[in-house]
Amino acid sequence: MKQNLTLILMNEAVREGWREWMEKVRKVLPQTDAERPVTWIAAERLARENGRMVRLVELLREHRPVLSYRVKEEAGLLILVAYHRHGSSADFLLETAEAYFRERDCGGFLFLCRMQASINAYDEYPHLNVLCNRLAGLLFRFRRERASEYRKGIPPMFGKADLQEVEKYLPHLRGCSFREEIALALPKVKNVEELARECAMSVNTLGRRFKEELNTTPHRWLTEQRKAHVTSLLADTDMPLQEIADVCGFATPSYLWDFCKKHLKATPAEIREIARCARTV
């Protein structure tokens, strides 16, 4: 069970002789609402105590290197650190962003995006530009890796609505391209009609966009994506055929078998055997 972080920090402050400032922090944290930037004013003032803040960040690294935005006091500490114009605080926030991304914590990642945008709305905190750039870089990495993750059956960290929200807080981030939009929709759809609905366009419009931007048809594209997904699950996992059929949108394993035979020129068992032999070479 985790010790109470505020109590740990308070004990350290008493021992080192900066109890008065830490007592103010302890009182401010419960009043700092992560959803209401207007409540962050007291944290902004406390962050001006550079020496105290540098030591606080050192203690956070020691006792709680990744703060949880879901815990009110820890979210308040993240806000306090963000107001501190110092390299050590910027580094702490960068490491937090990396940890949230690594742990696929979408909520934590979105919180960091909102927080830095609110605090640095008028470019008064240039150290947060580094955080903004890192968040954008991680989003670009997500976009690059999304297709390969889908083929491995890994659910996306961000949905379309999440990316739209992120772009409000990272203005230099490009909007989703058509390729990215259909890639995000892919895990939820089984046919062209569902893909068109997910992309909020008619079947005819979807077909025209595919022709213009990908020089193919939606049906052919879906088939190619399904082929890649099926091949990856058969070759890289021990999932039963029934589960693979369910994940890939086939009513029964028999339909999966027919699909493999028609489009991959091999049965599921043969695909697995080919993959097994390739690994032993």
From TrEMBL:
InterPro entries: Homeodomain-like_sf (IPR009057), HTH_AraC (IPR018060). SMART domains: HTH_ARAC (SM00342). Coiled coil: none annotated. Residues 191-274 form the HTH araC/xylS-type domain. Transmembrane segments: none annotated. Keywords: DNA-binding, Transcription, Transcription regulation. The keyword Nucleus does not apply. PROSITE patterns: HTH_ARAC_FAMILY_2. One of its GO terms (molecular function) is sequence-specific DNA binding. It holds the Pfam family HTH_18. The keyword Cell inner membrane does not apply. This is Helix-turn-helix transcriptional regulator. It comes from Bacteroides salyersiae. The lineage of its organism: Bacteria, Pseudomonadati, Bacteroidota, Bacteroidia, Bacteroidales.
